[in-house]
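Aim 2, interim progress: modelling of the zinc ion-bound target.
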Amino acid sequence: MLTVALLANGLVGLVIISVVVWRGDGRTDLRRCPECWYDMGATEGLTCPECGHTATSGWQLHQRRRVGRAMRAGLWAAWVAWVLGAYFALPGPWTSKVPRPLMRVMLSVAAAPPRAPAGGAGSGLPVPDGALRRSGSAWERKVWEHQAMVAMDAWAEAVTGGGGAGPLTDEELVKLVPLARDANALFQQTGDLRWGEAWVYQDARQRLVERRRAAAGEGMEGAALLLRLEWALGELQHDGTGYAWRPDFARVPDEVITRALGHADAQVRLFGVQRFGRRVHLTVMDGAQPMPVGRERIEAMAKDDPDPAVRRRAADLVAYLEGFVPRR
Ligand SMILES: [Zn+2]
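Predicted structure of the complex, ligand included:
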C-alpha cells in the first residue's frame, strides 16, 4: 500500500510543521517589538527604534513570536490538500474514507435500529434488515453492520445477565439458547460482508473481549461472569485470540455444553449436541484443540433420549465420533 505509506508520511510531516508553526518562537525572555520583532534588548522605553511602533505595556515586548499570515494560509492549504488527496487516493466507497470514530457517530444518530424479533421481546435477537447487507449503497451496508452490532450487544447483555451475573440457571438456559442460535447465525452472515469494509459489528465483539479480560482478572469472583462471557464470545466465533470465519470455530465452553446436555428441555439438549459436534469437528481439524467433555453422555442420548430429534442428532454425532475420533 504505497498510497497509504505516502499519506501517512505526509500526515506526520504536516503535523510536525503545524506544531512548529503553531508554537512559533517561544523566546518570551527577549524584549522584542511585537510588530517587526526587532530586538529591543538594548532599547529603553516601549517605542521600537526600527519601525516606530509603541507597545502599550511592557509585557507586549515579551510575546511568543508567531508566524506570518501567509505562512498560516499556506499551512491551511496544505491540510486541505492532504484531506482531499487522502479522500481521492484511498480505495473503496466513501464510508471507508470517513474516519471510523466519525462513522460511528453518524451511524448511532442516523441508522435505523434492527427490527424487534418476530416472537416479541426476549424470544430472539433484534433482526437486522437482510436486504441492506447486500445493498449497492455503501451507507446501507454500514447500516446493516450497525444493526448487527446492536443485535450482538443484545446477545451479550442477555447472556451476561445485565451485569449482575451469577451461575447459569436452567430457566435461563431455556431463554438463552434461541438467542445463542440467532447470535451465531448473525455472525455467520457477517462472513459475506465486503472485504475491508466490515468493521462496525466488530465493536460489539471487542467490547466483549475487553469485559472478558477484566473478568479473568477477578479470579473466583469473576468466574460466573467469565463463563457467560466465554459463551457469548464462543457464539461470535471468537477463538481466544482473534476470530474465525468457520462456523465450527464456535467454541462454546464445556460447562455450557454439559449443562445443556443434561437439561430437561429437548431444545436445549439439541443445542448441546450441536455445539458438542462443532467442538469435536474443531478437534478433528486441529489436534491441539481439546475434546469437549461429554462423549459418554452423547452416546447414551443416541440410545435413549426421549426426544426423537435429539436422539437422531446424537446418533449422527456418535457415527462421526467413531469415524474420526475412535476410542483407543
Ligand atoms: Zn518594530
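The pocket of zinc ion is lined by residues 33, 35-36, 38, 48, 50-51, 53 (CB under 6 Å). The chain has a mean pLDDT of 87.
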